[in-house]
Please model this.
Amino acid sequence: MVEHIHAIHSSGGKDLVLAAGRGHMELAEAVAAELGIELLPVSSYDFANTETYVRFGESIRGADLFVLQSHTAPVNQWLMEQLLLLDAAKRASAKRITAVTPFLAYARQDKKSRGREPISARLVCDLLKTAGANRLMSVDLHTAQIQGFFDGPLDHLLAMPILVDYVKTRVDLDNVAVVSPDAGRIRVAEQWANQLGRAPLAFVHKTRDVTQPNVSHANRIVGEVAGRECVLVDDLIDTGGTIAEAVKVILDSGAKSVIVVATHGVLSPPATDRLSKCGASEVVVTNTLPISAEQKWDGLTVLNIAPLLARAIKAIFEDGSVTSIFEGIY
Ligand code: R5P
Model:
């Protein structure tokens, strides 16, 4: 008989249980494997009118439950599925519930740019809380202040250690420059520059048309990139417009090469087409979101975020420190 291990038991009588929505099962299974457990069985299906049904297949009473969902497209469906899982967990008496959203949907809508707009990132955090999440865990939030949108502990993980380790093997550290695709992300680029041995910093002066989604223009580079191997760092790549324009401006300014690094590969069309032709030597993302065979091309590298998620989940379960995982970055 095959023994299924759906929980890690602690001496204090707590059980760590991991359940997942259907957004990115490959990642959920990889995290479970890192933890040495199997995912909790969950029945999930959709009704003819697109409503979603979920049910946990085993008791979770008293469990320290982690509910993982990647908010990939169709975002609203997977967000709703996670809300239903959280509600089911609350009603099934899980002791503590952590929503794990490696990529938090709607995070870009974190303020009113114009009157009569919602603050959608705040609403999503409120929904997760109301549904049953006591805690929230996410990776590289679009802006750090989203931490304050969730009324409870939020573990903000950074993919930087994984990305930096890889990039160090791909560039000449004596001739590197870090470039931010817009002025708003300079703080993150600064952390990158420090990690790459106090590399020089530059940023792209970008303007965005707030009346149109996914439309921005890279105007010029502020900083010195001529002759340098540039590391262009962003939190996410959606349609690839921001990055493709930035790469062009950087190369036009005399850079030797550009490697693109982003935590979240949203890769909505036409990202694959744009990025494969943009002139970057390589595009590096993590697997916080699923990336299909059609979205991939030769110049794309996908790094595994599962060990980091598993380490943070274990630390939370054992009342250990999550901050210490990122020693030296903050
Ligand atoms: C913007 O603030 C974000 O950090 C990304 O640069 C942007 O959302 C990416 O979108 P796209 O790839 O569609 O240009």
Summary: Residues 75-91 form the longest helix (17 residues).
